Amino acid sequence: MDLHQIDYFLAVVDNKGVNAAAAALGVAQPTISQALGKLERELDAVLFHRIGRGVVLTSAGHALVGPARRILRDVVTAEGVFADATGRPRGRLDIAATPVFSADPLPRFVAAFRRAYPGVSVRIGDLPDESAVASLLRDGHCEIVVCHLPLPDAPGLLGADGLDVLELGVQEWWLAFPPGWPVPPDDPLPLSALPDLPMVIVPRGGSQVGEIEQAITAAGRSARVAAVVQSREARLPFVLAGVGGTFLERSLAEASRARGAVVRAVEPRISRPYGLVYDGAALSPAGRAFVALAGA
What we know:
296 residues, 40% helix
C-alpha cells in the first residue's frame, strides 16, 4: 500500500466516482482504476461495488475510510513539522466550515494567515452537518472546524470528545423579505409583530432552525410556509424571486439589501456563538499558528 493508492481511494469516496475523482486530481481515469485494483488485491478485499458508472463503498471500504484519512492527516502533519527558511510553518492546513462562515469571517482570517505564513496552503471544505464535527476531526478530514457553538450534546462552550473550542463571535439572524413587500417599518421588528406573509424555510434538524421556531412560537406567531429548501444557499434567491421571506444570517441579510430585499433586525434578538473547534494535542504547527492568529 502506498500513499497514492490511499489518496486515490479517498478521492473516489469524496467525489462519489472514479471519473469525478480523476477530474478533481487532474489524473487519467485508468490511473485511478489501476491503483484501486492494486489496493484491493493487496488488501484482499473489495472496496467498492461497481454500479453502472458509479461506485458504492462495501463494508470493507467503509472500514478503510477512517484509517485512510488518518494516514493522510499524519503525512500532512509530518510535512508541516519542517519550517521554511525563515522559521515559519509550511505545508497544508485543512479547515471545514459551515457554509455561511466560508463567506465571512473565514476569508479574512485566511487572508491574514496567508500574509503571515505564505508557505502554507489552506484547503476549505464544507461542513453541511454540524453534528459531525467530532467525527470529522477524529477521522482526519481536517484539523480545524469553523461552526456554531456549543457543539451538539456539549455543555456550554466546551468541546465534545476532548476537543478544544475558541469562540470568535456571535452570529445573529435577521429577516429578509422580497423587494416591495408590505413589511412593518419597525427595525428591529418585534417577533410579536411578524407579518402573516409566506416564508421560505429549511428542514428541521439544525439547532438554529429549532431556536428560530421557538422564538417565533414564544412570540405567539407562526410561520406560513411557502417553500421548504434543502440548501441554505437557496434561501436568498427564493426571497429575491418573490417566493417569501426568510431568516438569514446577519451578514447575508445586510448584503441582500443591496439587491432590493426588505431587511429587518428582530426583537428579541436571535443569536448564537460561533468559533473554532480543534484537537489542540493533534494540531500541526500551521494549525497552531492559525488558532493563535484567530484568537489574537
